[in-house]
Every structure is written in structure tokens, then in C-alpha cells.
Amino acid sequence: MNKPLILTLAGLTKRFGEVIANDAIDLTLHQGEVLALLGENGAGKTTLMNMLFGHYTPDAGYVEIICEDGTPLRLPPGQPQAAIDARIGMVHQHFTLAENLTALDNILLGSESLLSLRRHRRAARAKIEGLMQDSGLIAPLDEKIGALSVGERQRVEILKALFHDARVLVLDEPTAVLTPQEADSLFVSLRKMVDKGLSVIFISHKLHEVLAFSDRIAVLRHGKKVGELITADADKNQIATLMVGEETALPEREACDVGDPVLELKSVTVRRENTRNSLNDVSLCVRAGEIVGVAGVSGNGQSALAQVISGLERPDQGGIAVAGKVMPAPTPKGMIKAHVGRIPEDRHHDGVVGSMTVAENLIIERLDAPDVQTRGFLRKKRIAEHAKELVQAYDVRGPGIEARAALLSGGNIQKLILARVLEQEPLVILANQPTRGLDFGAAGEVARRLMEARKRGAGVVLISEDLDEVLSLADRIVVMHDGQLIEADTRDRAAIGLLMAGQAA
Amino acid sequence: MMDMLQIFLNESFWVASLRIATPLIFGVLGALLCERAGVLNLGIEGIFVVGAMVGWMSVYAGAPLWLGVIIAAAAGGLFGLFHAILTVPLGLSQHVSGLGITLFATSVAQFLYRTILPDVSSPPRIIPFQPMDVPILSDIPFLGPVVFQQTAMTWLALIMVGVVWWVINRTPLGVALQAVGDNPDAVNAQGLSVYKLRIGAVVAGSALMALGGAFLTMSAFDAFFFGMVNGRGWICIALVIFASWRPGKALLGALLFGMFDAFQVRLQTEAGAIVPSQIFLMAPYVLSIIALVIVARKAEYPRALLHPWFKGHR
Predict the structure, then answer these.
(1) What is the pLDDT averaged over residues B250-275?
(2) pLDDT tens for residues A100-122?
(3) Are residues A188 and A255 in the same domain?
(4) Does the residue A131 lie in any domain?
(5) How far apart (Å, rounded) are the C-alpha atoms in residues A84 and A114?
(6) pTM value > 0.80
(7) Which of A382, A399, A418 lies at the terminal end of a domain, its last residue?
(8) Which residues on chain A place their C-beta less than 8 Å from a C-beta of chain B?
(9) Is A119 close to B172, i.e. CB distance below 8 A?
């Protein structure tokens, strides 16, 4: 590598309680280089970058940046201002933008003296407009952030970093919220800036974009750096193995007899002010023994679809039928009674009551069942036995059945929810982003359980942002865009990507 | 009916409205600053009492009036700092801390008053701010007496509306303040201190609240007595929502309330023989609840209001 060194991370270590999130990680970055930080969810990528940027204070190790005049400068730990002064910019996965301010104000935030009695925006605006020209990252500067699309918000975030003359730009999962086409145009823009000398670290768990865009790849697994390679020499399978540590063994989809329709939506329309929560004339039929994958960029109506199937939202128009029986006024209770099992998107928030015990969370959907209560009193002993069986069968690991559910890890909370739902042998299973944020093992377990339910004859609605997951699990794929469902007659990534972007293939 | 109309045409009604509105203007501006930064300050009622007592006591002990105002503001700021430390870096419940501050501040004020003046039977008096008589301007018919014969503190309140508006909308500090009440992560990512901004806003806002109290003992009346704040702080908390966290609307809300109150006093003399006076005393509060119901349903709260932020947590 003949490019000059610009950044060194040495021995960075971070512990959260018992968990070692980062274990003595070394990393270097050269000027004009794109380094991809690859790893599964929970591998410690974001933690590492948060230490670089001063959001977290490392327990050991240091960050050193080579200044423009060639002198090395060690950054004081835990101070974002120091990182900004050293011209490191970070674009977080969850945008750090104030929605009540305009894009311009968000970019300028912190760059003016707080004691100034007036704003000085003209020169700044000219500079930002210049940056937009150079990079092709165009965003409306005078609109409030609350009114911008996700793609636009991300561009504002990047412009914010560039405005501060960033020499090093860190992007945390920049494509997670973008359509494949938006992602491509983002990479084109970034490449332009890299050619002008910007150095980029980008975090991803998507192999194909890492291979397409990076110069060098560092792979993290379980908080350790397990490999580092030049992208040009890299082999896809080799990287995948580094990443997950074992052969990726997704369950094989066996042929399965498809039966009668178990869930039917007919021309369902939900009108809400926010298009994220709207559905426009959606029809869907799920039969026994099939998994229907709903692909799409999040925020296109998936949550409304999930709410309707869960009985949490009543359609303004259209009808819903479970096992051929029309549900005139669906309620959550009614849907549970009709044997619809729900695996919610936000498992911590909607899936469990964190302050209640594991045992209680396992019965919470059927408090009036005879094995749970008699004459209004809980059958504590029976509930505990029941919990013990389920925890064993579904391998829910934690401090025990009497521990608060909030103490479980994300993967174990998901197993708890699976246990609760699948134990009832539902006819219909709504799985909304069931593997998001789970490690490889837990995700595989979820996939296996869904396959099992399918084999038993359940109809599964699998809503997922992860196209690979949809492709590997679903018998049939529909794409959600702008509140509408489009049947995808193809399993071709690019064609589905176009549908996700709202363009007919 | 004609009598009612007469009330509105009488300039003394408008003078009274503005006078009644003055402490509310201070209070609602103070609450607005705190809440724009994301901190609810229910200590307001107690901070009013502290401002009223401390300002008055300073003047009674011989300080000039304006020094008394400054001491009152400082005392309010001190209680604000207490609330800020509990709710910002420590992240305790803003409701509980605020109510605690109100109980604590009220008791401390009354305790100090009794300890310093153990033997007084009727409240001692000071010479308060006098109505300013601005030459020429005071002679403008109607407007002259209403606006230009108020005391200096009413003027200060009106000026503060402009100052707070300018700071929030026209300075980098104001932009940072708005951001910290919407998304503290945005502020932190830009290298600004969430804690300093929030603590600063709560201290400044509390100082303003104390001025509302000081107005009561140093301008509206000339003595301190228990119970004189009488829920004005709580009214301000409601008025902030009515004002959608905007200084201009805050002024409007305070003036409306002042008008209700001035109106009911005058109605009492007109119709007091038939309707019990308690009904009139209730009227401004009932009306403010009704106004709130109409306005507040569409209110857009600062998104981070009531949400503590901790460094290093995400």
C-alpha cells in the first residue's frame, strides 16, 4: 500500500458488564482508501466506531490520527469534539438529526460560536452547495428534517460530516434503509469524494456491497478481528466463513403440500397521514403450508400490514378472513382466538413486558385459559411447570423462569416469543423482521422453527428487510412499496430490487 | 349587557390585564426555555415563592429595588440548578423532582421569612416599583396609560419576550437549544455538551420564573405573605402548551389570562349580588382549561421532552 497512513486504532477494548464487545482490536486506514468493516450483527462493529468517534470511552487502547503535516495525534478518549476537530466524521445508522430544525441548521449545529448574537449562514450555505455539486449528494437545505425522506436524511448526515472538512468518514450500515438503486448512487457519490482524497470506513454485513465498493476488508466476529484482506484478492466464500465462523447452513426448503387459504386480505386500505403507516388496496392470500415473504425497504407500509394482521389496526376499507372466516371487526384478542400467532417487529417493546417474569410472559396472551387460571386466580404452580417445559424445549437461556424478561438477551427474548406463539400451534404466523439484530445461531433457530411450522401446515407471513432471508425462506415473494403489494414472479435479486424501488421490472 | 361592554372600553381594565399578565409572562417564558431544552420544570410554583420572598426580603433589608430583582433571579437560578442536576446528569423523573423542588422551595421561603421576621403580626411593607410616567408617550389617549404607565418590571417582562424569541430563533445557541429538546444525540454528535445546554436552559428559565414571583412582592404589592403565588406557576405550565412553545404566543396566552382575570373582578362588582363570587374566581382557570383543550390537542411537543439522555448510552 503506497498511500499514506491516516488513522491507527491500537488495542481498542470495550466491556459492557460481563460482555466484551471489543477485544484489543487493531486497525489502520490510509488516505483515499475505503475500508469495509464486515461482521454480523453484534460482532462489535458499531462499538468500535463509537470509540473512534468518542461516543464511548475505551477500557484500553487508543486512537491516533496522522495530521495533515504528518505529525501523529493521539485523540483524548470519550470526546466527540476531539474527533470532530481531528476531522473525523461519523454517519450513524440511527441518524443524529434534530427533526424540528432545517437541514441547513442541522449541518451548522455546533459549528458556530454559541455566544454569537447572530447567525452567519450565507458563507456556510455557499460551502454546502459547493459540496453538493462536487459529490452529487443533493438534499433540500431549507426543509425541516421531519419532512425529508430517509435517503435525503442520510445525505444531510454525510454533508454534515463533509461540511466539517472530514478527512475520515465513518458510515454505519449506510445502505440498511436504502433501496438497491439508492445504495448504488450513494456509492457513486462516495467514490467521487474518495478520489479527491477522502478516507472512508464503512460498516456492513452485506457481502456483495463490501466486495463491490471497498479496497480492503476487516472482518470482526464476537468482538475480535478475525481477518483482514485486500478486496481484489478476496474470495466470497472465504469472507463468509470468516464472518460467521462456520459453514452457513440455512435449512433446506423441502417441498411441502400447499393447502387451503388460512389468511386472506381483500383490498385492504388503511389511510394514515404518514405514508409509513398506510396501506393502499392490499390483497394477500396465504395458504396452509407456505411461507409468503414480504420484501421491501422498511417504512413502505410493512408495519401497517403487520398491525392489520395482528388486529391492532382496523382497515378503513376491505376485509380480512382467517381460515375462511371473515373477521368483521378484528381485535388483537380476536386474532389470537382465531389462531393467529404474532412475532412482533420490536421484540423488546411489543413482544414482552420487560418488568414481568419469563413465566408470566409465556402466558400473557391467554390469561383466561383454564390451565392458567381458575376463577380468576393464577395457577402459579402450573404456570411455572409450563414455563420450565417451554424454556427447555426452545432453549431460552437466562437467569431462570422467575427472572424479569428484560434481563434476557435479544436472541433469547425472540426464542421466548417463539415458544409462546408456536406452542399454540397457530394456523397463521406473522413474523415481522424475526431475525433482525440476532446473531447467526439465533437467526438460524428462528428460521428452522418457521420451517417446522410450515411443515405442520401453518401459513407464514414473513416480513423482512433482508432480501437474502426472504429468498432463502419464502415459497412465494411479494414486494411492498409505498403501501402497495406487488407479486414478484421472480427470484432475481436485481428485479426484486427494482420492485422495492417502485419501478416495474 | 351594556355594562359588560363598558368594562372593555375602560382603560383601567387593560391596565389591570397587563399587570396581572406580567408574572405569567416571566413564568411562561421560563417554563418555555426549560421545555424547549427537553426538561419539564414543575419547580416553577416554588420558584415563584422563592423569587417573591427573596426579592422582597433583600429590599426590606436595604438593597435597592433592582439589586433585589437580581438577587431574586439568582435564587431562582439556584433552585433551577438543583432541579437540573437531579434531572439532567442524574436523569431522575422530572415530575417527581419538580414537585419536590416546589414543596422544598415553598417551605424554605416561608421558613426563612418566619425566622428572619419572627415577631411581625401584619406583613411589613417596602416601597415597590412605581408606575413609570414616560413623558409624551403616556399622553397618547388610551394606549398611553395602558402601556406607558406600567412599572419597570412589566417593561422588563415585555422586553424578555423579545430577548427569548431572538435567542431561540436567531442565534446559534437557540438552534442548539431546539436541537437538544428534539434529539440530544444530534447535539452530542456535533461535539456540543447536552448536559451544559440543558442545565443552562433550566437555570436561565428558573431565574425568569423567580422574576415572576419578585414582581408580585416588589411591583404588584409591597409585602410578602403566604399563599400569594396562588397557582400562578401551574397556570404557566398550561400556558406553555397553549403557546406551542413559542414566545410570541406565550405573551398572547399570558395576556388572555390577564384579561379573563381582570374581567371577572369587574364582573363581580357588576353582578356580584346575584352570582356567588367564587364562580368568578374560578372562571379564568376554567377558561384556560377550555382554551388548552382547543389548542393543545394539536400541540407538537419537543420530542425529547421528559427523556433523560445519558452519555455513552444509545
Answers:
(1) 84
(2) 999 999 999 988 888 888 888 89
(3) no
(4) yes
(5) 17
(6) no
(7) A418
(8) 50, 55-57, 78, 80-81, 83-85, 90, 92, 94, 96-101, 105-106, 108-119, 160
(9) yes
